[in-house]
Amino acid sequence: MKLADNGIADASVLSAGKSDMVAAPGRESKPLVDLSKVTARKNLNETAFFFPQLTSDSNGVVRMVFTMPEALTQWKFMGFAHDKEMRSGFLEGKTVTAKDLMVQPNAPRFLREGDVLEFSVKVLNQTTNRQAGKVRLTFNQALNDKSADQLLGNTKPELDFDIPAKESRSYSWRIKVPDDIGFLSYKAVGSTGTVSDGEEGYLPVLSRRILVTESLPLPIRGPATKKFDFAKLEKSGSSDTLRHQSLTVQMVSNPSWYAVMALPYLMEFPHECSEQTFNRFYANALARNIANSDPRIRRVFDQWKGTPALESPLEKNQDLKSVSIEETPWLRQAESESQARRNVGILFDENRLNDETASVLQKLQQMQLSDGLWPWFPGGRGDEYITLYITTGFGRLRHLGLDVNTGVAVRSLNRLDGWIDEQYREILKHDHPNDNHLSTTVAFYLYGRSFFLKDRPVNAVHQEAVNYFLGQARKYWLEMGNRQSQGHLAIALLRFGDNKTPKDIMKSIKEHSVSNEEMGMFWRDTELSWWWYRAPIETQALMIEAFDEVMQDAKTVEDCKVWLLKQKQTEDWKTTKATADAVYALLLRGTNLLASDALVEVSLGGKTIKPEKVEAGTGFYEQKFAGAEVKPKMGEIVVKKIDTGVAWGSVHWQYLEDISKVTPHEGTPLKLNKTLFVKRNTARGPVLEPLKGGVNVGDELVVRIELRTDRDMEYVHMKDQRGSGLEPVNVLSQYKYQDGLAYYESTRDTASHFFIDYLPKGVYVFEYSTRVAQRGQYQSGIAEIQCMYAPEFNSHSQSYGITVK
């Protein structure tokens, strides 16, 4: 590099070959740079050298020679220099590293046993002369480095080439991948006798026999005996390639204990707002009542310590899941839930219960404002809704029969009554007070106020306003538009002395319900909503209370409890409010549902399972059978429950089968259907045509996956395998949003993964594109899905054969 008089640098030499910065030959005998003083800084795609001093030769030229890395690409050199007079110069140069003859194999990401593939190699002539020679492709088994050409059918590994100047040609070898060949390495070499090039690499080979997990849920409501047929297991003897791996039976005899396991979540929630401070009091008060209701219940807590009972469902059953929890975005959630469950032992410690209950109650007293309202957060203004929530919570605790100090709640009633009176006076200012002026908050007030009618009746000053809204409730309850508020009105009207309207409300609500044996009673309007009065868990909890108190309908109450518990099977109750309401509803008829220790009996093929180890409380047990013990007749399953209530279990069958023989699994509420389409460009625009027959290299193959689920689920993982000759078009992993569903799509070498935090019931369609990269015949692979929270809910599709012309 030479500085001219005008300070502009001149790029005189930029070459490759030697490893050190040296003087040009014949100029000076000593090095131009003291290398010990040179510093270098490496970034992701560049290296910068800093020279404290450069000495030029007699012509004022500094020559630097670098050894280039082994990469065939374009390189950019940039130099900046200045002298003692601060004259500076900059130069920039580009060079391309290439060879006269280059060999570029087009290797697939992987192969699968049974694939027929054309492995192509491109030979490039970079010279200005015609080049002729031979190109050779060979394969070795990576384990022992022995030749695999004969096993792959590569009988003619060497081909002749004759390539004009500045052109390229592609050459192909057709190989067929046998079973049990193992990991492969390949080497492609081209030579003209004077110049040559080569490249080698590794090629993973996947087994054609894949591990398939199929599950059959075993829901039951007792007392009852129920038969299940695992049809595919019963017919498994008809396949000569199927190999049993294991059969696992799991049963939860008393899932009501999962509500108790949720209580520490209320205790541990970190925020210091009024609502969650009250929920800590709520959890401690419930825990003390539960622990003292039956000595056997307290013993269960002690037996849980140090056992898998306190692990999150996300961390359990790793051998039955399609992906380990460490490979999902939910590892932190799993660890958090497990830690919360382990706090059950702390929660039910008697000394801690008494101290914590007293201290939290004192904190609530300090947070309450002088007018009786509570702010959302300390220092804020009084909030009527938050106050209603806390006051109603105290009423619920007393309604459950708990001995709690309700002084702070009673103190808030005068201000709440004043608030409802203000609403009434504001309405009177309008010309149409007989119109509908009900609101969800008014309905919540009437419900919450009704808990305290006996010991704190409404003051005569405010009675006119309360009577007005009670009249509005009788007249306009049907126009409320949401079940939770209608339930609030039904309970409130009954407690205020109306015996007719509440029954009409509950009859109407029941007419819109849906019932089935497994899910119990539910409503189809339980979609996720941002509005508190449409929250599905809280609404279902209120339905339990309303049917219990208004209708005294024990069967309907139990049916509604079944739905609430079934949600806990596939979901985590996400909020303190949902958890508190659900626990309240499940314990509404006392804690006797926790006292039962009767186990659900499961028989396979006429043989009753005798569990060796049973989890305390939940009555969970598991029995595993090794592959050699699994017989087709074990698909005949009988489940017997002798006590009342809901229970659930599952049978998980794992087997190895040729991927081309795997048939769709439809034994669970998840349904999965995979289809392939070829995208064609027509005069009308791009058109998707169903895959029929063969496709060509370069075609865009669109994968469509249709997913159906009849219930809400959380932490759902879906995986779609790809064929060995296909390349994904979208290689970037990212969050996506479509049709109201949010999910994370991750593209890997052999499959695309979809991680869904929350999957509402419904039908969903996923599509993504792949590009046909190699000729041959191979399998598309199956699509599979599983609820990580409840692995018994899984499904998979079949695999399709792809022929590329």
TrEMBL record:
Name a GO molecular-function annotation. Answer: endopeptidase inhibitor activity
One of its Pfam families is A2M
Q: Matching InterPro entries, A to Z?
A: Bact_MG10, Macroglobln_a2, Terpenoid_cyclase/PrenylTrfase, YfhM-like
Read off the SUPFAM superfamilies from this record: Terpenoid cyclases/Protein prenyltransferases
Using the record, list the residue span of the signal peptide; answer none if the entry has no such feature. Answer: none
Q: Which domain of life is it from?
A: Bacteria
Q: Which organism is this protein's natural source?
A: Pedosphaera parvula (strain Ellin514)
Looking up Gene3D superfamilies in the UniProt record yields: 1.50.10.20
Q: Where is the Alpha-2-macroglobulin domain?
A: 47-139
Protein name per Swiss-Prot or TrEMBL: Alpha-2-macroglobulin
